[in-house]
Write a structure and sequence with these properties.
alpha/beta, TIM Barrel, 2 domains, two-stranded parallel ribbon, 11 helices, 43% helix, 15% strand
Length: 304
């Protein structure tokens, strides 16, 4: 399986893109999270100028936050800097000067809404990207939905899985502090989403178990807000997808770690990843938050 990296958008991460390219990784992605991180187009422009081979992706941009013409202009401009190396993920998310219209830009649809989003990808002839979907049967269902809607456009575009990854040492606690630090950003993002939308009709939080719902309430209290407060979004998403503070380790529940993160010994991980590859996942994207240089090297060693 191919391997890639996803990080928060900000000037300076181009150095990580250079390192990822040197390690032989296939792609380097940044999140599009306005008001929380930097601008992905500026960030990828810096990465494009600093690299020569690695694919550069936005995962994902939301049509609700950026107008289609502005996003298209930004992508075409990036394509002028890195011809044929640009990937654009499109989805709801959790939160024209010199342009190139000749070289292709790869588009993928975020499968955050399951089969409905996969059907959109099929109708548009694009690939899929999903966060934390570690169930091979789930991927098979997404591909079935995409193929069912594709018709003549069924060209088997690529699929990307974004998930935290941690390689356990022999006899290491799979739920210890080191593992929580490496995977906690994914768990906290889910809890923050559940808390942010808890006042909505058919709220996501109601699908969680009692322990997870209690963690959502603790998170709200810890951030000093409520599910209906107008300031809840900025308070809940502070340090979004960054390394968690030690005081939040208790919120990183084993049930959610097991659901969202790839944790295991080298042999365990290779077996799980091979199963996901058989289910149609083409590339694994990890987000290193503790020691990015070391974590990127570990990913390259594991999969390459």
């Amino acid at each position: 399986m191919r391997a890639g990296i996803v990080v928060a958008a900000q000037p300076g991460v181009e150095d990580l893109a250079v390192q990822a390219e040197g390690l032989g990784l296939h792609s380097f992605w940044v999140n599009d999270t306005p008001m929380l991180h930097g601008d992905p187009f500026v960030t990828l422009a810096l990465c494009a100028k600093a690299t020569r081979r690695i694919k550069l992706g936005i995962g994902v941009t939301s049509p609700a936050l950026r107008s289609a013409p502005a996003a298209a202009s930004g992508l075409a401009s990036l394509n002028a800097l890195a011809p044929g190396r640009i990937i654009c993920g499109v989805g709801t998310g959790n939160t024209g000067a010199h342009v190139n219209t000749t070289d292709p830009i790869e588009f993928v649809v975020a499968a955050l809404l399951g089969p409905k989003a996969a059907a959109v990808a099929g109708r548009r002839g694009t690939g899929l990207i999903s966060y934390g979907l570690l169930d091979p049967a789930g991927w098979q269902a997404l591909h079935d939905a995409r193929r069912g809607a594709a018709g003549a456009l069924d060209t088997r575009p690529d699929s990307y899985l974004t998930a935290p990854l941690y390689v356990l040492d022999a006899d290491e606690d799979p739920h210890g502090d080191a593992v929580r630090d490496a995977t906690g950003h994914a768990v906290l993002s889910l809890l923050a989403f559940a808390a942010d939308t808890a006042a909505d009709a058919n709220a996501f939080v109601e699908r969680l178990g009692s322990e997870e719902r209690e963690a959502v309430q603790r998170l709200l209290g810890r951030r000093g807000t409520t599910a209906a407060a107008p300031d809840r979004h900025t308070k809940l998403y502070s340090n979004y997808l960054g390394r968690i503070p030690p005081q939040d380790r208790d919120l990183i529940l084993p049930s959610l770690m097991n659901a969202l993160a790839l944790v295991g010994t080298r042999d365990d991980l290779l077996t799980r990843i091979a199963t996901l590859e058989q289910a149609g996942v083409d590339e694994l994207l990890i987000q290193p938050v503790v020691d990015p240089s070391t974590e990127m090297a570990q990913l390259a060693k594991l999969l390459m």
